[in-house]
Write a structure and sequence with these properties.
The protein is built from two helices and no strands. It is mainly α. The longest helix is centred in the last third of the chain and has 46 residues. Helices cover about 85% and strands about 0% of the residues. Helix 1 runs antiparallel to helix 2. The protein has one domain.
């Protein structure tokens, strides 16, 4: 069957893409921090620009860490778990759970 042949590859690729996004998110946060610091230090004589520059620098770091550790890495783990479970179900030919057999 086509599903049995390509499902493991498709699942592994999906998990690796999400895991890579989780590994790169902190780096993008760091880049945002550097951009915020450049804006802040470029206009340090104007106090109205220093605050937003520092806020942008801080929030970029936070976004990178949160996206990585709260969204992408847990999602990659969930995809890996779901993939293993689906492959077991396909190999056994059994329903996923007793509730999946109900017709309601």
């Amino acid at each position: 069957m086509i599903f049995r042949d390509y499902a493991p590859i498709r699942r592994r690729n999906g998990k690796s893409v999400i895991a890579q996004m989780g590994r790169f998110a902190p780096a993008f946060g760091t880049i945002g921090t550097l951009i915020g610091l450049i804006v802040m230090l470029g206009n340090r004589k104007d106090p109205d620009v220093v605050g937003p520059g520092m806020a942008g620098a801080s929030i970029a770091t936070l976004y990178g860490a949160v996206c990585s550790h709260v969204v992408f890495l847990p999602l990659a783990e969930k995809l890996g778990y779901s993939s293993k479970r689906e492959l077991l179900v396909v190999e056994r030919g059994a329903p996923e759970s007793p509730s999946s057999c109900s017709t309601s």
